[in-house]
Amino acid sequence: MLRLLATWGAGPVRSGLCHSCRQASDAPRNQPPSPDWVARPVGLCSMMRLPVQASPEGLDAAFVGVPLDIGTSNRPGARFGPRRIREESAMLRAANPSMGALPFQSLAVADLGDVNVNLYNLQDSCGRIREAYQKIVASGCVPLTLGGDHTITYPILQAMAEKHGPVGLLHVDAHTDTTDKALGEKLYHGTPFRRCVDEGLLDCERVVQIGIRGSAATLDPYRYNRSQGFRVVLAEDCWLKSLVPLMAEVRQQMGGKPLYISFDIDALDPAYAPGTGTPEIAGLTPSQALEIIRGCQGLNVVGGDLVEVSPQYDVSAGRTWWSWTG
Amino acid sequence: MLRLLATWGAGPVRSGLCHSCRQASDAPRNQPPSPDWVARPVGLCSMMRLPVQASPEGLDAAFVGVPLDIGTSNRPGARFGPRRIREESAMLRAANPSMGALPFQSLAVADLGDVNVNLYNLQDSCGRIREAYQKIVASGCVPLTLGGDHTITYPILQAMAEKHGPVGLLHVDAHTDTTDKALGEKLYHGTPFRRCVDEGLLDCERVVQIGIRGSAATLDPYRYNRSQGFRVVLAEDCWLKSLVPLMAEVRQQMGGKPLYISFDIDALDPAYAPGTGTPEIAGLTPSQALEIIRGCQGLNVVGGDLVEVSPQYDVSAGRTWWSWTG
Amino acid sequence: MLRLLATWGAGPVRSGLCHSCRQASDAPRNQPPSPDWVARPVGLCSMMRLPVQASPEGLDAAFVGVPLDIGTSNRPGARFGPRRIREESAMLRAANPSMGALPFQSLAVADLGDVNVNLYNLQDSCGRIREAYQKIVASGCVPLTLGGDHTITYPILQAMAEKHGPVGLLHVDAHTDTTDKALGEKLYHGTPFRRCVDEGLLDCERVVQIGIRGSAATLDPYRYNRSQGFRVVLAEDCWLKSLVPLMAEVRQQMGGKPLYISFDIDALDPAYAPGTGTPEIAGLTPSQALEIIRGCQGLNVVGGDLVEVSPQYDVSAGRTWWSWTG
Amino acid sequence: MLRLLATWGAGPVRSGLCHSCRQASDAPRNQPPSPDWVARPVGLCSMMRLPVQASPEGLDAAFVGVPLDIGTSNRPGARFGPRRIREESAMLRAANPSMGALPFQSLAVADLGDVNVNLYNLQDSCGRIREAYQKIVASGCVPLTLGGDHTITYPILQAMAEKHGPVGLLHVDAHTDTTDKALGEKLYHGTPFRRCVDEGLLDCERVVQIGIRGSAATLDPYRYNRSQGFRVVLAEDCWLKSLVPLMAEVRQQMGGKPLYISFDIDALDPAYAPGTGTPEIAGLTPSQALEIIRGCQGLNVVGGDLVEVSPQYDVSAGRTWWSWTG
Amino acid sequence: MLRLLATWGAGPVRSGLCHSCRQASDAPRNQPPSPDWVARPVGLCSMMRLPVQASPEGLDAAFVGVPLDIGTSNRPGARFGPRRIREESAMLRAANPSMGALPFQSLAVADLGDVNVNLYNLQDSCGRIREAYQKIVASGCVPLTLGGDHTITYPILQAMAEKHGPVGLLHVDAHTDTTDKALGEKLYHGTPFRRCVDEGLLDCERVVQIGIRGSAATLDPYRYNRSQGFRVVLAEDCWLKSLVPLMAEVRQQMGGKPLYISFDIDALDPAYAPGTGTPEIAGLTPSQALEIIRGCQGLNVVGGDLVEVSPQYDVSAGRTWWSWTG
Amino acid sequence: MLRLLATWGAGPVRSGLCHSCRQASDAPRNQPPSPDWVARPVGLCSMMRLPVQASPEGLDAAFVGVPLDIGTSNRPGARFGPRRIREESAMLRAANPSMGALPFQSLAVADLGDVNVNLYNLQDSCGRIREAYQKIVASGCVPLTLGGDHTITYPILQAMAEKHGPVGLLHVDAHTDTTDKALGEKLYHGTPFRRCVDEGLLDCERVVQIGIRGSAATLDPYRYNRSQGFRVVLAEDCWLKSLVPLMAEVRQQMGGKPLYISFDIDALDPAYAPGTGTPEIAGLTPSQALEIIRGCQGLNVVGGDLVEVSPQYDVSAGRTWWSWTG
């Protein structure tokens, strides 16, 4: 399964959306259309222009959008993240030569569309998300989520843990997202992993947070995390370094047990990913992000997300899809 | 058929793209989803989030994208027009109270996706477009096109005239697009209607051009048009006026015979529609555009297009879909 | 009081924020600083760079920000409306020659800062807003609100009606905002005036809605409003017309009883005010907006708001403050 | 001479800048290149891609840039106005059918480049500008200036009056620019016409100001102007009106004596011309601007300018060149 | 004092600007509001939303804005730098865990507003700035300046040296700013440190310039600097390196004597800080900038500035405040 | 000749475009104007504001624009690349201290303007380009090209090889551009070097491609290149490394034989150069780009280009000229 995660961006695919597509009729599985046959501006923007279907049945993995941003503490807009990630994914081809992967040849993948969130009620939205993911997970399909603010990872992990038990977590982010509450609320994009711990959804000895930085409320803002058993890797410990050695340790730590990958785009330095709501300077580079994703090869990935993509702040675009190209 | 054209933006619809959609199961036809049930950022961006299908069979009308812009003389980018128009159409609801129209209750409408154009060869693209429209028109479906630069109207009208014979034309534009050639070429976005006249595709006594303006190559740039029998209505003759009386005359002129409507978004003043490649100041207003579209009620519309939408120049967005809301 | 509302933008003022300000020490009241003495980029951005104070005591009128946008159905961002309106208000001077008004000479005005909204819970935010406005209204100060999405007008009117009884309403908007519910919720930016009617906060025979337009869910979307006694003036009935005669009728209708003015910036055509979340084409012009505001002269205005200013969509800026300059 | 002013945007021209230009060798005069022969993105951006020359000798009229903006009270950037106006002028063709004018057939016109202003010293810049214009005017060439903030019109008019005596002035602007001083300075973009009156450069009985609006320092901000004999036409007196009758009166008033036209782009509503530093809402429309320019036909125009074009605030571009297309 | 400089972005604070703020009443000193209690979009934008006061009396340090940009050689706009830095500083919290610093617990800090500069006269502005800083410095308060173009550092250093004698200088910049004159002027943003040397304001043996790069007028553009005793560290000598060793040398060099830190944001590569007027490629990274600021811990910092922030060129924002988060 | 290529950005120059330029009359050669004498916003935007001339006679090297983008597979706009590169080059000075180079003292350089491409026909444009470059090359002038999409390098290399025989190639790019065909066409921006190999224009043993990355159609996308003898250096092999050692090897490989340098701006990471049509994440840094260009010192460079600059996607600008400043 990890081969898919690490190779999004790679092979031939059926597309029912465009006329005059001349593709081999013997393509056994869904594939993104090649720009050799279908022009890049052509076709409706599903993820990688894969087929859209309403049911996860028969799929090994699927892209799902969760266009919610009412858990955002600063600049909103991640409700349009799924739409923009899909649009920019038209650049991706089927093979990933760096990984030696042709995922669409071995896996059945499609785009399941979006969860119909409630934009006016965060509690209700979380219920809707959990319910939708319970169905996806029940079918044996691995969900790859396009967010949406980071609140959404909490109900997704509820569905994950219901199926797999407590899961390991690779959390790439500028922030730990383990605040207890803010403005009187237990639920917003700063609290999802606190809630997950509260509910026993995480295998805390297998939680790694990478890219953490920024000003804080106290001098030791990572005390809670470390007391739970999390490994917290600060951005400043990554500066000017390859993360290949770190990922070797992570692979060792995760072993063969279920792992969820949650990637907040603000882990990256805002120069590389300005389209996000709570940017923090001096973050990871795209090459480090690729090292992280590629470093997961061989692990038992049961789900993953890319969250906090808020496209209106990335006026040049062409950059928000990055983490899918490992 | 005109009720549809004049009321895009009106009625309940099935959408297979989002989970948790709670819509009445007895909806007899395709409808755009109501924001009362489906949040606006939810779902893949087909036109008005209508169902997407590969074949025009069984449809009364259909939206079709033609993402081509290599006939552009100034700023390119209209290849992304279909994508953006679809995205912004998520704002439209099913009823048009101004027209008293509920088009989706009487007509079967869907989105047929895009013609797979050749971005490197204008001649070949025109052949591909004509071929695609021949199939659509043959099925009895009325094509409503999302452009693309204005070159595309030439192969569309080839397919139209093949079915209907020479058609009437309501052409709303800042430019007459009847140049003979430029840079040595007979085919670019300044020549489509000259080529149509050359091939006898137009019923020239029923051609009206509205919104024409700008500097020119000669002192009498409309001589060719008028010598063919076209009515040319200059933008300066529209300033500060309602166009309701003009449209009464147009309805009279068009009668019950087949009419094609070609709407170049640069007919509008660039304040209202900056997202286009060859803007000209002192153009029509949105209210005049609505008067034009609404004024076609009762006519025998066999097809229509909205062209020259070049979204990267409309940084605020929220404005390019205007002409569909008549 | 109306003289203030109609003349925001007018006289000499004390500013504690800048050094080297050379202003007459005998200025009897708060005034915006003149650009003849203080450079426009100088000073912190309170509204019109008026003094900021924590209490409404002693004020005739006050500006208040409500940076909330989680009731938004389409594009969010109005949480930054108060900040941008204040920034752009640095252009305003103290006198309004068109109205013959020098409001700051007769009225004590200040900026009260913002209500500390709860960004993650719309219900709780409404409670906080109502509570804050109860205190302002109790002091006899007229609140002039900088929004924020339109949901906020509901708790403001709760505080208003508690003091004044049911109030008249001049509501300028593209939308009637009288939906009953959406996505299962009774509270979002499409429902505030329905809730106000439900709670008896409005003097329904003195409610006028101006600028209404757009596609709808049904053929007669204004039935509810008219059945309550509202006057609904469609945008299409305003095209190419002066609104001076309409406002004479409105003044007649409102009489001397308490009136609240709620101005949604999307009443304007998006060409004039692109910085908003749910734009609708073919709207009012700025000159019509000024005619509306100026037409209120002499009325008993007990409060007012400018809502739905979402600045990130107005990339040129310099336009969002318009309605304050009547 | 007015035919040129009123018809910028009109005939065949030599261009030394591009290879493979195939133009008739018998073109007797400078002409903008036709898009039929030279692609619009081709060639260095002189005004209308006319030839550039260092001396005004032999020219009937010439474009001159003055890239200065240190007289700006609010948003700077007009130093890049000349560059952007030239860039956008690539859209203009040689004939103006509305005016029946082919100016480049009767007049010798070129681009003289820019005055080398001193960006750090406004006084010194004014001296440099006056000196440059004295040379241009001495040669008998009519200068058509691309600004730059409005301060520059003061030294230009010094050169004008030195040659022609006190001149008439058609001043189109949102502001009267007759302040006496600000921040202790007698020279900035709010004072040029006060300085001109002080020095006797204007024939005050032939000064007309059109488009004036906005908040002010006093209740009667036009007293100075009217006491000098100026006619002040407020924007609100232009709303929803054709300006053809006004211009008939202006032509009568100006007679055959020398007239200078100074056009501040902020006269237009910011919807049409957002690229400026001190925008004021509810301004003129492009059609009114064309009526003003076209209405000058037959007058004895000795010079003109377009000032306050600050391109970074017009992100869509394609609109700043408007006033040259009359 | 350096603990403050190195930890801007860290501790609880009183804010008089928002209603419903629920903060401990026993907070002994000014603090930025925590996002746990006050939503980030709430409140007027002073620096870090600290209290604003008119006098430096009683303060250990204070933020001061100098909104001047008429010394700019290329793109203007830094007059709006103070406003935008304050706006973006709403993201900062009170503790800096990387430095182990809680500056607001030991120091009294506030925002003093802006110096009222003269936008039309650079000489006069320099006089106004010097006078304002003389007062601040006299009170014993350390000024932390938000610029404004780099010209402003010259009058600030006049005030500094008057109090402290010649000061050491840590100057981070793409340019040495030691030109003698340009366009005939001795005063613009390329000359401040030349003027400081001329007047003996610097302890030249303790001047370090870091980040220098770009094309030049001569082959040895650093001769003047080095002949004065400055250490010039080129950007190319920083590529791919940690600056921790360099800063150890700098600390050694500076010793315990008074040091001023002047940080021009164009020291950074424009990818990280596009909002500036004279960008140069291949600059420092944010992590290097933090290493520089953090490397000053323990030094005797008597003042500092962040200059050349020109926000309109940073369309994504969220990045200009970077250097305050060390 | 390489000294020029490696030092663009360096000496005194005559400029006929601005008045009041006070420059030494004894400047023996063309030079960019110094900002000490000519303000940066002053003058028409030729490359580095060098003189423009129609003929290459007498020149050692020349800048040439090729404003063509109809070979683009994704986002168009590179037709405006030459215009923007020239505009931004106003920042460059005459000396390059890093290289110890004063190129304008030893070489005669000018700007030759643009090739008049055919925007509607890629085949015809290639013929026009080849013809133009044949004339330039014939005169002994080294062409330095401002693109334009990468298709243009194919006809340029036709002219090069006609003069020099098969040339070595240093190709810096995210993509190999050796596809055989797409959408049925042999000519677009993905095929130029395949066509060059087909026609024997390259000395394949001296071809080096640097910066290659991204998803692909097959698992071994570099097989063709390597089978021809190309050296392919992947971006991932450059991460966090100085390229000085690589360039030593390249110099060894190239020897004294003719070398062409083709630099696609998308070789850079999109954070540094967002203004391009087919961005790929995790690319080269500006410092690596400078190491590449500077590493060519001493080689026999017969021509070079900077292609795929598509300015509308670089909203901050100030960055597209980067590669010329080595």
TrEMBL record, chains A, B, C, D, E, F:
As cofactor, the record names: Mn(2+)
Kindly give the Pfam families that the UniProt entry links to this protein: Arginase
User: PROSITE patterns given for it?
Assistant: ARGINASE_1 (PS01053), ARGINASE_2 (PS51409)
Instruction: State if Manganese is listed as a keyword.
Output: yes
CDD domains from the entry? Answer: Agmatinase_PAH
**Pathway(s) it belongs to:** Nitrogen metabolism; urea cycle; L-ornithine and urea from L-arginine: step 1/1
* Superkingdom to which the source organism belongs: Eukaryota
Annotated residues that bind Mn(2+) are located at 150, 173, 175, 177, 264, 266
- Name its GO BP terms in alphabetical order: putrescine biosynthetic process from arginine, via agmatine
Q: What is its EC number?
A: 3.5.3.1, 3.5.3.17, 3.5.3.7
Which reaction equations make up its catalytic activity? 3-guanidinopropanoate + H2O = urea + beta-alanine; taurocyamine + H2O = urea + taurine; 4-guanidinobutanoate + H2O = urea + 4-aminobutanoate; L-arginine + H2O = urea + L-ornithine
The record's SUPFAM superfamilies line, in alphabetical order, gives: Arginase/deacetylase
Give GO MF terms, alphabetically.
agmatinase activity; arginase activity; guanidinobutyrase activity; guanidinopropionase activity; metal ion binding
- Give the keywords, sorted: Arginine metabolism, Hydrolase, Manganese, Metal-binding
* Cofactor: binding details: Binds 2 manganese ions per subunit.
Assigned protein family: Belongs to the arginase family. Agmatinase subfamily.
Query: What's the stated role of this polypeptide?
Result: Hydrolyzes linear guanidino acids to form urea and the corresponding amines. Displays specificity for substrates having a negatively charged head group and short chains including taurocyamine, guanidino propanoic and butanoic acids. May protect cells by detoxifying potentially harmful amounts of guanidino acids. Metabolizes L-arginine with low efficiency.
Cited NCBIfam families: agmatinase
What is the protein's name according to its record?
Answer: Guanidino acid hydrolase, mitochondrial
Record organism: Heterocephalus glaber (Naked mole rat)
Q: Give the encoding gene's name.
A: Agmat
